[in-house]
């Protein structure tokens, strides 16, 4: 389903304006990063020992470092950061959402995952978002009770700490409890994020009360305290993570979804949802095996379906393995964009919830299959949408298909990524979200957190009449995600970890950071800061303005026929792609934490003992 959002893109080369989705990031020539001049000190880079944290927010990163200092490990720190983000970044995080966590366990020398993605309530059918034979407009669906999935966030935290932490769940929640009680100062970014979802926040009585003043964003410099969320976290600390899934908290969630309390001056038509208590009681996270591909001597681990992060990045890396990416930059970027075109064609056709549809994951990650996609790439940009391939062996030699390919218009900018590492060598990459900025806009009254609208990641109607759609809603099913927490090992040891927000641009952002760092030799922080570009099997590639200002963009256009659409929109956030975070593990037990320096106001990278 096209989420037909507000973002607008304009063709670089004098073309028509198109209303499409996202932008991506690609590597600029060294030293040419135009956004570097806007750099503000948000602790975007830190080097030192004892462990490291990188997140989108200073208070949250500090919470993680505090836990590491007190003997917690990377898993404890990740939970402390995520729960604190529920306070300080409530529009992109918190107990009402879900996410995917990838962990490198040093002692066992293995990578595990937690799939804490929201599920569709058991009463969901493929017609969840259909009305009178028509799909609901996204703008209507996003603030409806129908959009709310059963939140997986708190069960993720509980499972992670129980299985892999050193501290107790209750101890890991303490920084967030304190933060919620004390509050935090409203900055420019928070106001921008509020504006992104103002009509939704205005519509719900509890959200107006908590996040707005007289229906307007809170003034700069004012303090937002959230005693309700402090109480919610205390309840969870006392009774354990399952307290969200039964008892009064579960009752309050279900009641909010089924009977949203709408402010009586609101013009919005808010449809109630279909969640029941038993949907919460029966919710449990899953722990699927990570995806794995080899790339230039590294082992790249990511998130398997229902996320398309690991499989799409993995397929693109396998395609790129066949090229020398260290030479001519324009040619390397041409191959990067084309690898995305073909990988997204496959992602859109094949990746859904593997409990409900057959996902040919083995084929999608098979270098032999990637060879059949690579051989379709020429010296000229392909005309998208290109067709999906056939990832079921035996693969054809260089097959062309007449199947119908689809593009990916989804390009949201919400979500957050956390990376933590500890002195024992454990590493966590954790991408989590409540989907759109502020999710549905519904705060659970008396509990201080917003409910997700993750079910809008389903296709509302089949995306093409002649191709099976693997991403339609069903009871218990998880919508396809793009979240892409990634851990890279080299010579058997963790090398770096990275992840990003940004809807489907998450995939292109992470892939671009990987090639920036691995192929183009940029330090991780530069790889993260670099202007972005990418392709979702769309005729034009999406780009930040800073990318099209580079001379390499002109070369891509004149030499390879690539075309770019610059991302822009109503708020400054709409013209950015992916406030990513990462950590590099250096020799001699040192760490280099890197956060986005500019986008979304800049993130925060910290180490326990700065050098
Ligand atoms: N719901 C999106 C996904 O799972 C992430 C939301 C966003 O980044 O805006 O792919």
How much beta, percentage-wise? 15-25%
Overall 3D shape: globular
How far the N terminus sits from the C terminus, by CA atoms, comes to 49 Å
* CATH fold title of one domain: Glutamine Phosphoribosylpyrophosphate, subunit 1, domain 1
**Secondary structure: helix percent:** 25-40%
User: What characterizes the major β-sheet?
Assistant: 12 strands, antiparallel
Record field, number of beta strands: 23
The CATH architecture classification of one domain is 4-Layer Sandwich
CATH homologous superfamily classification of one domain:
Gamma-glutamyltranspeptidase, small (S) subunit
> Which structural class matches the secondary elements?
alpha+beta
Give the radius of gyration: 22 Å
Query: Would you state the CATH class of one domain?
Result: Alpha Beta
Ranges with pLDDT <50 over ≥5 residues?
1-41
Bound molecule types: glutamic acid
Number of helices: 19
Mean pLDDT over the full residue set: 92
């Amino acid at each position: 389903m096209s989420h037909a959002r507000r973002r607008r893109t304009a063709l670089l080369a004098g073309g028509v304006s198109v209303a499409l989705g996202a932008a991506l990031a690609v590597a600029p020539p060294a030293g040419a990063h135009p956004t570097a001049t806007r750099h503000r000190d948000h602790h975007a880079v830190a080097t030192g020992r004892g462990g490291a944290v990188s997140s989108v927010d200073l208070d949250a990163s500090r919470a993680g470092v505090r836990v590491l200092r007190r003997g917690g490990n990377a898993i404890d720190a990740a939970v402390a950061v995520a729960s604190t983000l529920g306070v300080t970044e409530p529009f992109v995080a918190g107990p009402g959402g879900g996410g995917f966590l990838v962990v490198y366990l040093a002692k066992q020398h293995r990578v595990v995952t937690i799939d804490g993605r929201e599920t569709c309530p058991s009463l969901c059918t493929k017609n969840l978002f259909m009305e009178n034979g028509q799909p609901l407009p996204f703008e209507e669906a996003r603030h409806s009770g129908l959009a709310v999935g059963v939140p997986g966030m708190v069960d993720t935290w509980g499972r992670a700490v129980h299985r892999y932490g050193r501290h107790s769940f209750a101890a890991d929640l303490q920084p967030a409890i304190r933060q919620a009680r004390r509050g935090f100062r409203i900055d420019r970014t928070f106001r921008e994020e509020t504006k992104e979802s103002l009509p939704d926040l205005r519509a719900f009585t509890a959200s107006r009360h908590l996040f707005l003043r007289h229906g307007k964003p809170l003034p700069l410099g004012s303090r937002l305290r959230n005693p309700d969320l402090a109480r919610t976290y205390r309840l969870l600390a006392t009774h354990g993570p399952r307290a969200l899934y039964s008892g009064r908290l579960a009752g309050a969630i279900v009641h909010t979804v089924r009977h949203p309390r709408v402010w009586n001056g609101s013009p919005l038509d808010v449809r109630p949802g279909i969640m029941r208590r038993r949907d919460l009681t029966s919710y449990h996270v899953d722990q699927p095996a990570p995806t794995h591909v080899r790339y230039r001597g590294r082992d790249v681990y990511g998130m398997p379906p229902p996320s398309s992060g690991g499989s799409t990045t993995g397929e693109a890396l396998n395609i790129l393995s066949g090229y020398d990416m260290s030479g001519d930059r324009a040619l390397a970027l041409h191959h990067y964009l084309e690898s995305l075109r073909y990988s997204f064609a496959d992602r859109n056709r094949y990746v859904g919830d593997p409990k409900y549809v057959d996902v040919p994951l083995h084929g999608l990650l098979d270098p032999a299959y990637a060879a059949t996609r690579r051989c379709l790439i020429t010296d000229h940009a392909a005309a998208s949408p290109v067709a999906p391939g056939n990832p079921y062996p035996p693969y054809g030699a260089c097959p062309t298909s007449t199947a119908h390919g689809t593009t990916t218009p989804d390009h949201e900018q919400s979500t957050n990524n956390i990376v933590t590492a500890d002195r024992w060598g454990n590493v966590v990459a954790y991408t989590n979200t409540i989907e759109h900025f502020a999710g549905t806009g519904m705060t659970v009254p008396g509990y201080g957190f917003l409910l997700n609208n993750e079910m809008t990641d389903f296709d509302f109607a089949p995306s093409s009449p002649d191709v099976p759609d693997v991403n339609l809603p069903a009871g218990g099913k998880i919508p396809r995600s793009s979240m892409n927490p990634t851990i890279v090992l080299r010579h058997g040891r963790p090398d770096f970890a990275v992840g990003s927000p940004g809807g489907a641009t998450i995939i292109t952002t992470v892939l671009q950071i990987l090639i920036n760092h691995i192929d183009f030799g940029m330090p991780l922080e530069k790889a993260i800061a670099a202007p972005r570009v990418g392709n979702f099997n769309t005729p034009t590639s999406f780009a930040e303005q800073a990318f099209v200002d580079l001379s390499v963009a002109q070369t891509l256009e004149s030499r390879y026929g690539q075309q770019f659409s610059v991302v822009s929109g109503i708020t400054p956030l709409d013209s950015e792609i992916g406030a990513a975070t990462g950590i590099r593990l250096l020799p001699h037990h040192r760490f280099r934490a890197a956060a986005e320096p500019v986008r979304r106001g800049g993130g925060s990278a910290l180490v326990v003992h700065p050098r």
